[in-house]
Amino acid sequence: MAATLFLFCADPLHPLRTDPHVADEAGAARAAGAGTALIDHDALLAGDAGAAVARVERGAGAAWYRGWMIPAGRYAELAEALAGRGTTLLTGPEAYRRAHELPGWYGTFAAVTPRSAWLPAAPGDPPAEAELAAAAAPLGGGPGIVKDYVKSRKHEWHEACYTPDLSDTGRLAAVTRRMVELQDGFLTGGVVIRSFEEYPGPGEARMWWVDGVPVLTTAHPDHPGVRPAPALCAAGPRLAPLVAELGCRFVTTDLALRSDGVPRVVEVGDGQVSDLPRGAAGTAGGERLFRALVRAAGTRSAPS
Ligand SMILES: Nc1ncnc2c1ncn2[C@@H]1O[C@H](COP(=O)(O)OP(=O)(O)OP(=O)(O)O)[C@@H](O)[C@H]1O
Ligand SMILES: [Mg+2]
Description:
34% of the residues lie in helices and 24% in strands. It is an alpha+beta fold. The chain has a domain at 126-195. Strands 1, 2, 3, 4 and 5 form a 5-stranded mixed sheet that branches. Strand 12 (250-257) and strand 13 form a beta hairpin. The two termini are 22 Å apart. Bound molecules: adenosine-5'-triphosphate and magnesium ion. Residues 139-279 form the ATP-grasp domain.
């Protein structure tokens, strides 16, 4: 049987090298017994999936991807281009979208994540005020945040993310318009509106799941030095049934401690495009994660 393959993004400046963003992970993957290959992320996002996978050997078998985020439609094109060369992504396109975009995972995690609503929108075209008001109404008033189906403008918090009162439709619309404007062509799916919860803790924990098992808990990559709170590290058993229900093989859950001490899921992500904190790939935890991924590749057929 062919070794498990990891597909990493190539360095745009040196196409034969791994993107520095994930270069240490390529070493960890090889140490775990996997093979590695490079894909051209720019070509994939430009719509040329054939060129993106041109350097992947034919008949490589089962593969995980690790690298920059990919819009779900482009991921489907990647899967198809790889299939044409005899390589199957271990997370199929439907499962990828389910974990990557909030509307895909929200229903499963509704009890443990802030209340949310969403409405589709295209880049550069924010929803009308009346549509936003109707979408936000079930959340009631009080503070909220807006983001797209995948990413927020958290670094432009007051301008394009947070709003003090969701029932103030004028303000909600202004913040949403600015978020859509700043996301520009990268706006994914549409607009998500969420009730705001207080997370006073020092930082989020990112729990890494492979086939329903929490194999690693790291800091959030925004705060690589922050040690995850014990209560967050202990949340695995409570979340395991939800991760199992989601049915995606490699996911992350970002966890924060609410002011009442309850661990909450801030967001779910596809593990292939979730960042590890700087330096984590070379640690014992990083090794454990890559070994689990290699083991998983040999144990089940790929889902849709
Ligand atoms: N409902 C909420 N209540 C309180 N704080 C929130 C809420 N949603 C998001 N935040 C805060 O905003 C930050 C960014 O939100 P979120 O993680 O959803 O966006 P993101 O852009 O996908 O971030 P990243 O991919 O870097 O984790 C969170 O880390 C959290 O601190
Ligand atoms: Mg986040």
